[in-house]
Amino acid sequence: MPETPFRQSPSQTVGPFFGYALPYEGGAEVASPWHPSAIRFHGTVFDGAGHGIPDAVIEIWGADAAGGIIAERGSFARDGHVVTGFGRAAVDRDGHYSFTTIKPGPTRTDAAPYLLVTVFARGLMYHLFTRAYFDDEPDRNDRDRLLGDVDPARRSTLIAQADGEASYRFDIRLQGDGETVFLDFDAETDG
């Protein structure tokens, strides 16, 4: 019998139902606010008309300050001391989200520090992936391969802006003017 390749099953719209059990206590605290390297990473998720989306969920993942993978990634058992690397937060009624995390280090010598950002929201058939780089890393940002491949006119949609001491704002625009650059991962890869 010939071998049939596996095929991805069809997705369903991420609807208002996804909020049950996804946000969890402490999910937005990747690092405790009193951690010496803590930063605030926040922003608003906007629709194509420029209105905040009231029912999105944002996930972030970041490396440690040296660019290494954090061993405690994603822990539901947040103890207030360990930096977990992973966070999940629901937006408020105006579409605003906020995390307490640390600024990651670059994962390679030719890369800039970034946070991976995933967006789940109503009307999306698939969750969206993007990266948030930091505006206070201009030299590293100029050397980053992914940023270098992005149209210069759209590159700013991937840059979190410092808006206070240890605070960065990263707005996410799902479509329209200033649409955030989203990343596409090919599901059919070799090996």
Description:
There is one protein chain. The chain is mostly beta strands and 191 residues long. The protein has a single domain, classed as Sandwich (Protocatechuate 3,4-Dioxygenase, subunit A). 6% of the residues lie in helices and 27% in strands.
Strand and helix map with partners:
Layout lengths: L37 E9 L10 E5 L24 E5 L5 E7 L11 E7 L7 E7 L3 H6 L1 H5 L9 E6 L2 E3 L2 E2 L18
Parallel strand pairs: 1-8, 1-9, 6-7
Antiparallel strand pairs: 1-4, 2-3, 2-5, 5-6, 7-8
Family: Belongs to the intradiol ring-cleavage dioxygenase family.
InterPro entries: Intradiol_dOase_C (IPR000627), Intradiol_dOase_core (IPR015889), Intradiol_RC_Dioxygenase (IPR050770), Protocat_dOase_a (IPR012786)
EC number: 1.13.11.3
**CATH domain class name:** Mainly Beta
> pLDDT under 50 segments (min length 5)?
none
Helical fraction equals: under 10%
The H/E string reads EEEEEEHHEEE
CATH superfamily: Aromatic compound dioxygenase
Could you report the average pLDDT, rounded to the nearest whole number? 86
Distance between the termini: 24 Å
What's the shape? globular
* Helix/sheet category: mainly beta
What is the number of helices? 2
CATH fold naming:
Protocatechuate 3,4-Dioxygenase, subunit A
Please report the total strand number as a whole number.
9
As an assembly, this protein is: single chain
How many separate structural domains?
1
CATH architecture designation: Sandwich
- Which sheet architecture does the biggest sheet show? 9 strands, mixed
Q: Over all CA atoms, what is the radius of gyration?
A: 17 Å
